[in-house]
Each structure stands twice: as structure tokens, then as C-alpha cells.
Amino acid sequence: MSDYQTILEKAGYPTDVLCLDFESYYTTEYSLRKMPTINYITDPRFELTGLGIGDGEPMLGDNTFDLASPEFIEPCDIDWMLRLIDYDNVTVLVKHARFDITVLQEHFGIVPKFIIDLEDLTRHYDSRMKHDLKMLAKLHKLKPKGETEDFKGLHWADMDEAKRKALAEYTITDVELETELFKIYLPKLSNPATELRLARHTLDLWLHKRFAVDLDLASKIKVQMRGKIAAAVKASGHTPKELRSKKFVDWLQDALPDGEDVPMKWSPKPRKKTGKHVLIPALSAKDAGCQQLLVHPKKEVRDLIAGRQGANAWNSHILKVGNLVSQSIANGGLLRVPINYNGCHTGRPSGGEKLNLLNFTARDRDGIVTDPLKKKTRTILSASDGYILGWADSSQIEARLAFWQSGQQDMLDKFANGVDLYSEYASKLFHEPVRKPKKTDPPDVYFRFDLMRNGVGKVNMLGDQFGLGATRLHNNFLSNPVLRPLFDNGTYDFKFCKRAIDLYREDCYKIPIYWGRLEKAFRRVIRFPHLEVEVWPSTFRNNHGTVEIELPSGRILYYRHCKIDRKGKIKWHHGPLWGGSILENITQAMNSCLLTFWVMKCEKIGISVVLTVYDDIKTMLPVDQAEEMLAKQMAIMRSLPDWAAGLPVDVEGGLSETL
Fold first, then answer.
1. DSSP category for residue 643
2. Measured between alpha carbons, how far is residue 237 from residues 84, 190, 250, 295, 469 in Å?
3. For residue 56, is pLDDT > 60?
4. Is the pLDDT confidence value at 65 over 60?
5. Is 61 helix (H, G, I), strand (E, B) or coil?
6. Which CATH number fits domain 387-396+598-656: 1.10.730.10, 3.40.50.620, 3.30.70.370, 3.40.50.300?
7. For residue 189, which of 122, 132, 136 has the smallest C-alpha distance?
8. Is 72 helix (H, G, I), strand (E, B) or coil?
9. Distance between CA 553 and CA 198 in Å, rounded?
10. What is the pTM of this model?
């Protein structure tokens, strides 16, 4: 039995593997590059031009066909071939399951029992690497992937014999590459039994259409968003074209007070002619300098930035709502949830199909009031008829995990006894009692507590556990439209930010010590690759230049191409690392492991999980059993796997008609 077959057997998957790779008609405009997957597959123009199939000796009906050499199936024989496969006794391998498995589902009424998506395996290893077949083949020095341009715009009937032969060779090469890469990456999948179940759960969110979409409300919201763009552009005193022009920087500089300049940053990529990075205006929405200009005390400056950024931001929201509508129509009125398994390095999912439902739920947070129209977009999505949405949020889970790892027992005891650490910290910082704001509070009281507890206390505690410094905290506060005026009028200043950081590190003194222990272990295995170093509860090792951090759950975080540079800094394939960022990675990965544990327990007792957003699990519950099932869901989220013994957890939740 091969290594990959041993892994499959232990995970409860059939050891026979069958790779399926559909080829289809496409043009410049009608293609997966230009359209959401479901729109492409359900379009009247959709046509299969072939199927690649192969690897191993999978069971086809009552007979075993030797497909060790991949075969190309012509369109007229695809249905016949697919009906021969015994899907209960074969593991179906695909690359990009949202396409291949949806084709099976929509056009043949088939959903295999055991599915592995090659992209899930490569994302588990390194979510930031390129996952296209061409780059993966090049990375592992396999045969080159073919090009599809020769087949663009051609139906099967349009192809001559030479074209058909070329398509068959192209498809067979893809199958060979996918099966070879599968054998490379499956052994890198930590906790295969758990992770394969989670990957399948993520795919099922897509295959099972559950969310209802209010098309009329979506249309009204898009009109209102266009009104927001018009208002922002009008207030700037310029046209949309002018706001995008090179002259914008000059207008902005003229608007700034004397002695204040347009914020600059180093270009992310070097110039082609010189090969050097140059200073450019920091006007991207994510740039701290740009965020601070949005809350600048001078109205003319705010209006200019709001006009430029507002048009872009609201246009992106309009596109998202439009994409949601078009996909739901293609699905017959219900929405599939397009989430990428392990879309982030720490195991968190990411959004797909240009429709990120993970950041769709805009809400007030950290003392900042979200635009009501953005909040309203959540109400477009609702539960199917006869169901209601349940939500349960694991309270302060990252802070609890950080204290648990570092051994800060006094803080864990406070969590276990129900102490609100964010309020306690804010009370010390502001020298007055602070509590969690209540919906029944008068607006001014709610605003004050929300600002002190969430806008300052929570933001600093969550940031400083991973190494947030006074300078970064100061920049964050200057970007906060609520806090910025208090810094401009002198109520708070940089010294306040320094005191906030110092207060955290005095009370939570074991966190900085733990940063040092983690960084020391990382450095040690880089320098001495033969060593294995434990920093409870994680273990560090070096596998041919890839540092592996094994979590107590058994999950492994991979860091490719690690080294210590000339300045003594830790570098890996995707950038620098230090103790604080290592703790952040580990903590978020442990959080993902806990969510997986809870999701699997919910699904086991029939509670249907329809979305997970960081530390929040959303379920779809029958209306007549909703209260009872929500209580079970919350009880599950108060339970722990064996590896997390001693971690105090809590949860809050409720029911909602809409997302």
C-alpha cells in the first residue's frame, strides 16, 4: 500500500483514487475568469468538450478498469463513463471542486461521497503560494502544463482531428499532474481525518443552497449606494475622473495646512528601469496615512479623500451586492456559500467567487459606528423558509488562548470567574469605572462606554498581546473617526498610548516573556535543523528549510524557506517574523482548531452550520426547534477537546431572521 493510501485508509477514505478533470467550451467573455463559477456552469452556452479520468485502479461498477494511464473521454461518452463509477468505494480527486463537482451535481445529478480537492491540500501547506497547476508543476519540476488558448472559442464539433488529439493530450497531462501533486501534498496534510472532514464541510456549504436572497432589497440598496458615491464626489468639488488623476496629489497638498505633507510610502515593487523602490503617495484605503486623512480636522482634506476613497469603496460594495444577486439567480433564488478551506495561513477560511461573506456582516465595533447602509446589506440574506439563523460567538477566545499558552493563570482565573477584562483594563487606564455598554443605555452613556471599553480597552488588549507598540497604537487611534478629535484637541496624546501599552505589559507580564520563548525556539531550529524544540504547548522542528510548528491539536503550521538574515531578523518565504507575530499565528490557528472541533460536533447531532466567521458559528435551525438547538450549539461551544484542557471558554448567542 502506498503512503497516500495509508493516509486515506486511516482517515476513513477509500484507497482507490480517481481523478476527474472536465474540459469545457469558453470564449474571451464567457469564461471562469470573467464569470462566477455557478453563472458559468448554468449558462445556456455551457458545453463539455471532454473529461480526463485516471490514476490507480478505481472501482467502476462491479468491474475494475486499469486506469493507471489516464484516459480522455469524448463528450458523447462522458455520461456513460460517469454512471459506471462506484462513488461509495472510490476517492474522487479534483482540482477546484467548486467547478468539477458542481458540474457533476448540476449536469449529471451526481455528488460523490468522498472528494478531495487538490487546492485544499496546497492551501493547507501554504495558503499564500500560487495554486494554479502551471506554477505547482514548475515548483516541483514536473512536466509543463499545456496551454488552453488553442481551444478558445471552439465547440467539440468545431475541432478537427488534430485539435481533438491536442485537447486529449492537454487533458491527460492535467490529470497526470494533479495525481502526482496529490501524492506530494496529501502527506503534508496534518490531522487528515479531521481536515478532510472540514474541507468537505466547506465544500458542502457551496453544494447545499441554503440562504434566501431579497432581490428587491438588494436593488434598493444598490441605488442608495450610488447616491453615496454621488454625494462624496460632489462634496470633493471634483469629477470622478479628476479624483483619479495625477493632479489629485497637488490638490490634496494645497488643501493640507502649512507644514503638513501628503503621506508617503515606499512602492511595494521596485521600478523596472532602476530596480529600486521609490516613495509614492500613501493613498490606498489600507494605508494608515490615508485613514488619518479621512478623519483630518480640516473639512476640505476630509472631503477630497472621502471623494476619492468613497467612490472606490462604495463601488466595491455595489459590485458585491450585484454579484450576490447574479449568483442567487443562477441558483434559482438561493445562494451557495463560496468559502475557501484554509484560505489563510492560520487555517481560517477565506471568501471566494468575488463574494466574501466573511466580511459581509458589517457592524459597529471598536467604538466606530459603521455606516447604516453597510449594516443594511446583511439583511439581504436570510434563512430558508421554515428556518431561522442561530449565531454563537466564542467570547474573547484569542485573548484566552494567549494567556493559556503563556501560563498567565491570574488572567485565566478572571476569565473563568466572568470578569470582563476589557472593562477592567479600561477602568485602570481612564481612572474611572468602565463596563460593557448595554442596548438599554441612553445614547450618550452607550457611546462613552463603547468608546472606552471597545474603542480603547479592547483594541489595545487584542493588539498588544501580539506586540502592538505605542507608535502603531497611536496611528490606529488617529485613524479612528471617534478618537481622532480627542487627540487633535489634546485630550489624549502619544504619552497616553505609551501608558496604555505599559499598563498592559505590567498586568499581562507573561505575554512578552512568551514572545521571547517562541522566537528563541524558532531561531534555534533554523540554526540547528536536527533539533526539535518544545515551547508548551507547541513543538518546533525544521524539515529541510521549512520550519514546522506542531500545535497541541496535531495541526502543523508550515513556514517555507526560513533563514536568519544579515541583520539577525527571522525571514521566511512571505516576510519577516518575530515572537509577537509567531504567537499571533499560533493563537489564530488554535482558534481555527477549536472552531473545527465545535463545527464537527454540531454537524454530528444534526445542527446545520452554514457559516463560520472567525470565532462566530452561524447555524440554520428549524423554527419550531430553534431555542432548543441553539442551547445545544452553545453548550457544544463551551466544551473542549482534550488538548485544550484548562482553557476557560464562554459563549454568547442568539437567533436572527437575517444574516
1. G
2. 67, 56, 14, 18, 38
3. no
4. no
5. coil
6. 3.30.70.370
7. 122
8. strand
9. 14
10. 0.92
